[in-house]
Design a protein that fits this description.
Order of helices and strands: EHEEHEHHEHEEHEEEEEHEEHH
CATH architecture of the largest domain: 3-Layer(aba) Sandwich
Mean pLDDT: 95
Bound molecules: adenosine-5'-diphosphate, magnesium ion
Number of strands: 14
Oligomer: single chain
């Protein structure tokens, strides 16, 4: 049972992220949660004015640095428990915090906080490389904003990423690994056979294709679920979203997979996963610590 949920004030015009937030909010309401809309400028202690003690979820956008810890502390003061601690939230959100625990099951990655460091990292890894900020890539801008075929190009991409809040001052330079292709997105971005898996305490709860294309099976195959579970256990984050892609290995059987990305389950898009069964499972398990019980 989850008696309470915070839902971020939605941005307009509404897009896919807002459609997911709406579906999640409606589902949690049907499951018995009372909801509070969290305005961006709302002081943290006001967020829980109407919050019932017990477990709670926060649904919406990746919060700016510091905001999660603030909200988590205000929740605890009202005897309300969010699934992830501030440190767990950071491990799920900033890839440099997660990476040491994912070595070997995710593409090799070096870190840079200047464009020159990114150039050197790219030279050390060898072309091609994939660049992203510590929190997000710039994939909406197309493949040219993410893939670099040499150190010079990596330097240019890193300079751009570092000026964006999605980097939080650090860029990842990752070995670009060949993934099993499912064609290209409208902006030319290569789509892989890739799945999003929500896990709670290391157990997969629900999964769906990451790219919304019929070429990819809807539910993740067993091997992908097993790797998501391993990533979740290694990261030790209670509520997590894990993105798993199939490696392009010719006709090798069984297929091999890699961990592409992770995120706090509270701020991850549903990728076509049905909201009600997902949140019903989370509410049914609701296995995270709660200040009410520790009182
Ligand atoms: N190292 C890599 N090699 C090849 N493709 C990658 C690599 N990293 C990411 N991708 C592809 O790029 C997409 C976006 O990367 P991701 O790290 O998930 O960025 P974002 O945080 O913006 O979602 C992934 O879903 C995957 O298909
Ligand atoms: Mg991603």
């Amino acid at each position: 049972m989850i008696p309470f949920a915070l839902v971020d004030e939605m941005r307009s015009p509404p897009g896919p992220a807002e459609a997911d937030m709406l579906a999640s909010a409606e589902s949690l309401k049907l499951l018995g949660a009372s909801l509070t809309t969290l305005r961006r400028d709302l002081p943290a202690h006001d967020a829980f004015r109407y919050g019932a003690p017990g477990r709670a979820l926060w649904i919406g956008y990746i919060p700016p640095p510091g905001r999660y810890a603030e909200i988590h502390a205000a929740a605890a003061a009202a005897f309300i428990g969010l699934p992830n601690s501030p440190e767990e939230h950071r491990r799920a959100t900033e890839l440099d915090a997660a990476y040491p625990r994912l070595v070997g099951i995710t593409p090799e990655t070096l870190w840079a906080s200047t464009a020159a460091e990114a150039e050197a990292a790219s030279a050390a890894l060898g072309a091609p490389v994939f660049l992203k900020g510590a929190v997000k890539s710039d994939k909406e801008a197309g493949p040219e904003a993410c893939f670099a075929d040499g150190p010079g190009a990596a330097r240019t991409l890193a300079a751009r990423l570092l000026s964006s809040p999605r980097a939080r001052g650090r860029v990842a330079i990752r070995r670009a690994v060949p993934l099993r292709s499912a064609g290209a997105a409208p902006n030319g971005f290569p789509m892989a056979h890739e799945w999003r898996v929500f896990t709670l305490h290391g157990e997969p709860l629900a999964s769906s294709r990451y790219w919304q294309t019929e070429a990819i099976a809807a539910a993740a195959p067993a091997g992908a679920l097993a790797l998501a579970a391993e990533a979740s256990r290694r990261l030790d984050v209670p509520f997590l979203a894990v993105d798993i892609a199939e490696l392009a290995d010719g006709d090798r059987w069984p297929p091999r997979y890699t961990v592409v990305d992770v995120g706090d389950g509270q701020f991850s898009g549903l990728c076509g996963i049905s909201a009600f069964p997902l949140w019903a499972r989370v509410a049914g398990a609701a296995a995270w610590s709660c200040p009410e019980e520790e009182r």
